[in-house]
Every structure is written in structure tokens, then in C-alpha cells.
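Practice set, problem 2.
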Amino acid sequence: MAESLPVIFLLASHLFVSGVLSMSILTIENKCNHTVWPVIYSWQSQLSTTGFALRKGEARALQAPSSWFGLISGRTLCSNDSKGNFSCVTGDCESSNIECPGSYSWSKVTYVYFRIDYGGSNSHTISLEYGYNLPVLVVPSRSSQTCFSSGCMVDLSKTCPDDLKVFDGAEPIACSSACRGSATPENCCTGYFKSKQNCKPTMYSQSFERVCPYAYSYPYSDNNSTFTCTNSTNYVITFCPSSIPSIPRSSTAGGKHNSLWKLKPILGGLAALAVLIIIVAIALMVRAKNARRKSYSNDENIEAAVMLRRYSYENVKKMTNSFAHVIGKGGFGTVYKGKLLDASGRDIALKILNESKGNGEDFINELASMSRASHVNIVSLFGFCYEGSKRAIIYEFMPNGSLDNFISENMSTKMDWKTLYNIAVGVARGLEYLHNSCVPKIVHFDIKPQNILMDGDLCPKISDFGLAKLCNNKESIISLLDARGTIGYIAPEVFSKNFGGASHKSDVYSYGMVVLDMIGAKNKKRDETSRSNKSSMNFPDWIYEDLERKETIRLVGDDHITEEEEEEEEKIVKKMTLVGLWCIQTNPSDRPPMRKVVEMLEGSLEALQVPPKPLFDLPLVTAWDIIKDSQETSTLSTQSLLERKTLPTDQDTVIVSKEMV
């Protein structure tokens, strides 16, 4: 027994020393402008605390023992109620106390997972899997290829999609993940989607990964979000860091203190000289720096909100051969034809927006809207350019131009009504997608023939989202600060609250006017002289007169459909007419949603009834004049069906805009 005592003593000493050496120091510091209440939750081993308060500028060091496995997060906006119960707006652990003992419920916050001395090494992961509430930086005391400073530095609560934002009053304070926001199998990678093959990254996880590339946000992400360090590595976890340091903090830095102190006079002189050089450089380059700062003032927001490739203005010039081929012009800018610079050399349309002194919110709004939409009837974007006042949108080229141009160029020929019907159905499906399937939902607010582009197969694609508005899934009425749209297609409630609130039904109205426009353009030789003295805003009563007499042939003009032609075309014309009339009902609640519009177009004609006549005898011209005087739009010269029906008999050609933007 006495002989075995030295062995036992050596073994115990080894275990004690190994445990001490493999222990890590976790220093948690708060650089936010407010108090943060850290949460410490442990699955294996325990730390000395489970929760505490850190005021601005404070730090606290904790000893993490060998084999500790747990997480660290931060709570914000915490307080005690009248009964003394403690709670927080974000990251609350539901313990009613500052400490968080017992079980833990996942919250929409930024997490940092740690494993100390697991298999002879430490590991940590920054996770946005459940959401985000605070920027976090983790700095290890020892660096290597698998162990270096990392974090999520961007304030995602401000760039978060509207339907995933967590608010405290009107201020966004956190961001939910797509899974926590919708709980669908596609977003949570559950059920059928529980595999990398079936569960694809959502646009939200891609957005998070773009601005926080070292954070874990998607179950099957290929990025290396787990960092492996040697055991006994110490860490500094910083909430609201100002920047990522190029040199990691070291717990052994104190040994160098004396040598640095000796160099202090030399370093002071060099610093003074450096300051002088910087002042001179700033004086010489102030204009260039101001221009550059202005150019990238919204970079952080646009990178997080838009998931598209960004091109330099120099590349834009190369794509368009120095803007050689103009294919369209409008109030918002000019559209050029070009080619991608990659191996495909694919044809593109490149819209150069007019220079603006604003901060680019409309531009970012259009990019954010279109990048969220992916549908066969929505124009596809390839990228954008944003360099100060130089702004461009790059999207797929449409060889048949806009619907407006397509109809006007084919009016002299016998156009197939089946083609126009398919175009109407395609536009309806695109709007139905924006209103119901897109996350968040999108209301376009500028549906018109000029904003419907035609590809080589005459498949219609909705474009130009400059006036679009994103809305929450539960949001039915949209608050607008100004009227938006194009005269002749804008819904009554958009410019006057007397007709109701603006909503997705405003797009339904514009769509109905487009459908009736298609019918009216085909009937260009209709005699309207008897109404030439009436206001151009009065509705063409002849449509209702023909429907009441069941004279569907007159709807398309005697030069196209005759009694000998197939009955199918007559049904198509009448179906399009009835659907268009239902869509332009004065009261928004009387209009069908786009999902119903698609059903009406694809259903039987017998199921459709003639809608009540809209109240177009109201003094709308005065309202339009007020809008025109108060705010010019890019499309005030565009004439709608209502305006075209009152042209004199010698002007039987439809006046169209060449605008494609």
C-alpha cells in the first residue's frame, strides 16, 4: 500500500494540473450604449453564475471548467414589474429573476456556443439559427487557421425583413429567423425537407450569411461556422463591438507591458508625426473622401436587404458597350441593351436611373422587392450597380418589349385573342404570387402595360417595382404618404381616402384597367363620336350596353371577329371583359382578390355574372388635376383605355408610350 501511494499522488497531481491547464477564462464585456443582461446556460458542467447585469463599459470574467458545454446570450430592455418579477423584451429566460437556473427556452437572439476541452480542444459557434438581437464578437487569446476573431457585427434588427422584425413600440430591436417566424417545414428543414437535398437556404439565411459569414444560420450550411482552438484558450465575448481587431487579445499581454513602456516616448513621437501626415492627407483628399462616404452611406443596409450580385459602374459601361443601344426611356431613367460579362454572354436589359440627390431609398426598395420575388411572371434580376448617384438595375432582356409596344405594333395585323388571353392570365398569376406567396407580401402600385414585359415566347413578366411597398402578412390596409401610380390605372382609393384604404386591391384595379386596355386597343375603330364632348374620365358605357344586349361581337370590333368565326374567341373576349369590369369596381371590397381573378379567368364563362356598373360619373377629373399639379410622375403622359375611347374619329390609332421602365 505504501508503495502505491506515490503513484496515486502523481496521478492525482496530473489530473489536478490537467484540469487547471485546460480551464478557460471567458471575459464578457458590454460596449453597447445600454445595459445588457448576459445569460449562461450549461448542458455539461456549470459556471459560477447563470445570469447577471452588465452596464455600459463593464466586463466580467468567468472560469469555464474542463468539459464545460453551454451557451452565452444577451438580454435587453429588462426591468422588474410591480410584483418584483424580472423580465426582458429580448432573450428572456422566463425565470422571473436575473439568474436563469433550470430549463431554457430558445429565444430570437444571438447565441454563442462553447465546448471546453472536448477531445483535447475547445470549440465555439456564433448562431443566428433562432434569430438575432445583439451584435457579438468572439476573440480567442490564441489564433490559428481554425481559431481567430469572428462575429456578427451588423445590426440585423434594422435590415431585417419587415415580417420578421421584433419591435419595441415603433423601434425594431431584434430579428426572428425564417423558421421561428413562419414555422413551415421548408424554413425549418423538418419532415420531407429534413435533408440538404430538399431543404434549400431561404433568402433570409442567405441574407444573414452574407453580412455575418462566420455565423451559423442554416442547418445545412457549407460555411465553417465552428471554430476550433487549443484547450486552455481564453476568450473575450463582446456585445456591440465597434470593430473586429486584427490582432486577437492575449491573456499573456501583461508580460510585454514593461517593454512597451520603454518604447512609449518613441511611439509617442511617431504617433504625432502620423497625425500630422493624416491631417495633411485629409486636407488634400476631403472631396474624394466625402464623395466616397456618400457613395457607400447605405452600403450596409443594401447588402443586407438585397441578395444580388453587385457590379461596378465600370462593368456597367462594358456591359452596354458604353451605353450604345437604347431600348427605352422614361421618367425614372433610360434602359439599354447589353450582355453579361461572363462566359454565357447573355443578353440583358440595364436600367440606368436618373441621378437623384436623395439617399437611394426608392432604389433600395425596388431592389429589395424584386430580389424577394421569384416567379415565371416576374422579371428576373441579375444584379445592380450602386456608386453614389450612379445607380443601375440589371435584369433579363425581353425581346418583345412592353405589352404597350407589343399591342400597338400588332394592331394592324390580326392578333390572336388566345395570345392576349394567355398574357392576361400570366399577369394575374404574377400578381397573385406577389400578394399571397411572396414573403413579405408585395403590392406593386404601378401595374400598367408599360410595366409588363414580354419575353421571346410572349410570356408576360411584371417589372418596375420602384413604387412597390412591402407589407406584413397580416397587413390589409397600407399607409401611403403620397399618391403613387399612373393616371388611368391608379385605383380611386390611392388618391382619395373617400374610396377606402390602399391595399392589394389597388393592384387588382390597375390589372382590370390593363385587361380592358387590351380589349379597347383591339377595338380601335369603334365609333365614339357621340361621346366626344364628355370628359375623358367617363367610363365607356358601350361595353355595358353590348353586354346587356349580349352583342359580344361588337366588343372586339367588326374587323376582327365575325359570326362565322369560332365561338371560343367570343367566350374569351367576354370572359376578359367581365373579369376586367369586376376588377375596376369603385369599392375595393367589391373587387375580387387576384387568387379569385385567376380562378375566374381559368374557369367557365357561365359562372361569371355581369358586375354592377362602377361609379365613374363622379367628378374624378378634378381629383386627377390636383394630383398632377402637386406631384409629377414618370408616366403622366400615358393614356389609358378611358382616355383612348374619346379620341376623335380621325385619330383611330392608339397613342402609346415608348417607355419600358
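Problem 2, part (b): a different protein.
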Amino acid sequence: MQSATLLVEIGTEELPPKALKGLSQAFGDALQKQLQEHNIATGTMHLFASPRRLAVQLQDVATQQADQVVEKRGPSVDVAFDADGNPTKAAEGWTRSNGITVAEADRLKTDKGEWLLYKAEVKGQPLAGLLPEFVQRALAQLPIPKPMRWGTSNVQFIRPVHTVTMLHGDQLIPGEVLGVASSNHLLGHRFHCPQGATLTSADDYEATLEGAYVLADFAKRRQRIVDGISAAAKAAKGVIREDNDLLDEVTALVEWPVALTASFDESFLDVPKEPLIVTMKDDQRYFPLEDSEGNLLSKFVFVTNIESKDPAQIISGNERVVRPRLADAQFFFETDKKTPLESRVAALGNVLFQKQLGSIKDKSDRISQVAAGIATKLGQSGDVAARAGYLCKADLVSQMVSEFPETQGVMGMHYARNDGEADGVAEAIFEHYLPRFSGDSLPQSIPGCAVALADKLDSLVGIFGIGQTPKGDRDPFALRRAAIGLLRIIVEKDLPLDLQELIALSRESFGELLSNANVADDVLEFLLGRFRPMYQEQGISVDVIQAVLARRPTAPVDFDKRVRAVASFRELPEAEALAAANKRVANILAKVEAPIADKVDSGLLSAQEEIGLVKALEEAEMRSSSALEQGDYTGALKALAALQKPVDGFFDNVMVNADDTAVRENRQALLQRLRGLFLQIADISVLNN
């Protein structure tokens, strides 16, 4: 069967830049799936995406569907023929409907009987007759939250469609998609090639567009931007901080990228760099330049979509555009500095946190109280943490944060320093928002950790305390993120804190506000449940996490040590047998209704294997207890791994449920002792093979 490269392109108005990569991948996947589901062979797929187009190029696409043999089963032989072997009406009706005679029907024999069978050959349809519908279906499956209409048509898509190209090899496939007829006309660069280009072969798509000043390949266009801004930064003796999201967005905004360098008045550098960076990146999609020490320079790199004969004009235009935004930041900063943070706290009383839990000021008061308590638990004076907690939300009512919400916390730090607050207070104000996202940095100072924990606890205990727990995808207060952030801080900063004590400390700060009597248990359960996704993200298997969760340790650092120990134990050659033995022991003990003795009576031991197991248990207890005293769970489990052979020998040769009651109960006590050794660390019976 013949094959050729297939090219499908949808030419549009400018597509949403943040959605472009997702739309491209979804279009390619959906179209390829349509072809494969309809038995049209395809080869390698190459996706193209630029501001004004989505395109899919597929190698080795067959010219038509593969022929198929369709088997149609008819009535069973005992129904198809009477006692004399003559066809019945059922057989004749079935064969007639298939255009054959009874004599021409095949037979299908199975272990359940024999049936009449008709094998019909279905000829494959040409690709040209099927493709328009496939493209239409693929486009209908794209993740488009708000489609739009244009002109007088009822056709809907994410942006108005101007061209549709469906080319198989050098053959144009006729048809209509989204109300636009297929043609070999491609949209060129809006300014460099407004007349567009004509595509003569699907294999020439990328080269044809490049001749029309369009780099259609997203990855290649992105790399050209990286090379361009890197060269510009080097020439300006600056450094561009990596920002993949910004790179992707800029790549989705241009078709022929050219990197240029511009500058702004150095007086703006008196403003903290964070709001300047925010306005350059978020408002203008510029790449700020810093020196090797992280200080902002008065230069920036931007990417234009035109190769100008007079780039100075473009540079000047961008400098004029950014100046008012930087001037706004400068004005806000100078104005905000005139009002101390402490004077802003009262205004937080007018900002609602949650109707039942009060204002942001109420929250700040609680954070201050709890942060002081946490700092004390960590062996420090609570004064710095209390002060930072009291001021930590004050910058929310500043002009700068009102205009640039992304700068909350960091501006509080700058304003605190301007007010003469202690460095520890200023740092903690910034750090209390950390971590802001998965993989983000953590607070470095003890006061910063204390305030961050107090803030997250306040949200968790408060929202659970009024019965508004996260359900499904609904989590308006970001409690899941707060919970994982809280656990990360305690674990990664190795803080000797217990969740139950922290929850109690936070609950006390609410006074009589909370209506949920079970809030402490609910929050603890929620926090313990967050360990699973946190460790799964680190590659820890679910059964290891479940083994530790079964023991419900409430000190996160202790939980982490147990998880690491069980993960290490799971790799030992003895682990599988001991996990199975523990499961067997758990099942045996679960069926025992009477209380089990605490001690094993050596006088009732008779079998060599049970005597040997007792001796091995005593040795393992001694070695593991020494490790446990030092918090070395890994060493303790390695010591217990030596029990594998004695345990296997016991189960191979000793009957636990002996007829003699005293002997049976003594062996049950022995098994309970064995299981108790492992349960000091985790329930390894839940480990999978």
C-alpha cells in the first residue's frame, strides 16, 4: 500500500500563548488516534505550533484504510439445520441477509459448540474521503474552555480560523473544516510575509514557512530565543535567571524571534528588585538582567517578532513602555516607606480572612501567639517570632502589594528593615510564605520556620474547625499545599516537633471560635494523609508509606526516618520472607480472642525451632533496641532481618495451634513478641512482594 507524509495545519488569529503547547499536543494526539482507530497506518508524528497556527505532520501515512475481514457469526448448527440436515428458516434468513447461500457459509468450531460463519472482506476507504471528518473530531476534543464565534457563522473555535491545509504528499485533500475549505495557502509572518506562502509538498512544510519568516517548530523557536537572549546577556555583562514558564510564553508570542537589549534609568534600582522584576516579566515579558551576585542591572533583554532594519527604534519604544511601570513601583515604594508596618496592622482588621474566623488582623494575632510557642519549643526566645507573626501580613495593605500581589512577604521584609525592625523579624516576614510551590525553598531561620508553621496551622485548624474541609478538587484555602509545606519544613529542617502538640497550640489560639469538636483529630488525619503524596513524589512506593502510616507516628522527622528505614529494608533479600511471615503472624493473632500473655514461658518450649526462635529474638531485641535508642531505624530493621531463617524454620516445623492449650498460648505469645519487635518501627506485613 502506498504512503506519504501527511500535513494538517489550522491557520488562525493569535492563539492564547499559555495554552499553545497544550493545544498542540492535544491536536496531534487526537488526530493520530483518529487515524489509528480507523486502520490507517501512520509513522512518526511531528508537531508544529506558533502564534497563528497548529499543525501536525505524520510520516508514512497510508493512502487508504487497510482492507479488513469481518467475521459475522450466525445461528448454531443445531438451530441452522433440522433433524434431516436441511437448512432451517433461521439459517436461510441469516445467509440471505449476508448475500450468500447456506452452502457458502463457513463453520466456526469452539469448545462451546459450532456455528455458521460468514467472512466478509471490507475494502478500506481512501484517506482523502475520511480526513476532513477526522480533523473536525480532533479539533472538537481540544481543551478549549471558552470557544468563540466570528463573522456570521455558527462555527466555534478558540480563535477565528483563516486557513486550513490538508496535504498528503503533494496531493491536496479537499474538504471543509470549521467552515474553511482546504487549500495549500499558508499564513506567513504578519509583517515580513503578509502575502503568505504556497505549500507544494507536505515534506516541505517547515522549510516553506521558514522562507515566509515563520519558525513553526516550537522547540527550535524556543532554542533560538535561548541562544539570542544568552548572547545579549553576555554582551551586556549580565545574567538571566532561568524562567522556563516565561520562555515558553515568549516562544508562543513570536514567530520570528529577535533578541534585543534595552535599559532604564539607574534611579529605579533604589527600589527593591522584586517589584521591578515582576513588572518586567509579567507585564512586558522581558528578561531582567542581574550581575553575578544577583543584583539587578538597569538593563533587560526582550524578544521582538520582527527583524528590523532600525532596531534602535524598537529598543527606544520598549524603554518608553516600561518606564511608567517602573515609575509606578518607585512611587509606591517611596510612599509606603512613610507608613511603618506596625501602623498598617490596624487596617488588616478591614480585610476579611474568613467570615467565621475573622479578619486578617485576627489571623495575625493568632500567628504571633502560636509562632512564639513554636520558637520556644525549638529552644529559642519567642520574641522575634511573635513580632514577625504580628507584622507578617501588614504589607498586604501597602500600595506596592496592592499593585503587585506577587511581592507580598518580600516587600514586608524590605519595609521592616526600613522601619528598623530586627533582621530576624524582617527575614521571618518574608520566609513565612515559604514554600510557595512544590520544590520551592524553605525558611532558613528558626523564627521564619515558626511563623511559617503558625500561618499554615492557622489555616488548617481554622478551616477544619468550622467544618469546611477540602472535598474533591475543591480546596479554596489551599490546605493541601499548606499541609505539605508544613511537613516539608519540619522534615527537611529536622525540627523536633510533634503534630499533635502543634495542632493543640494552634487550636488554643482560636478560643471559642471553632465549632468542630473533632478538629484536632481531623487535622491530624489530614496531615498524616499528606505524607503519601509527599513521599510518592520522591519515588517512595505506596506500600512503604502505608507500612509506616499503620503505626501513626505524629512527629514528622520520626516519620521520615521510619520511611527511609523501611524503604532500605525493602531492598534486603530477607524482606520478602519476613513481610510474608509478619502477615501470617498478624492473621493468626487476629483470630485469637483471649488476651495473649506478655511473656514466653521457656518451660513450655519443646521444638528445637521454637527454642531457636526465642534465642534469635533475644539477640535481635538486644541489637535493635541499641539502634532504636539512637533513632537508627535502618539499623534496627537490619538487625531484625537476621530473624528470617529462624522464623521460616519455626513456621515450617512448628504447629502454632497445638492441641495443648498452654503450649498453643505460649506460641501465640512468642509470635506476639516477634510482631511487636517490627511494630516498634512499622507494619512490614503490608509490604508487597
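Answer key, part (b): The first strand starts at residue 3 and ends at 12. The chain has a mean pLDDT of 93.
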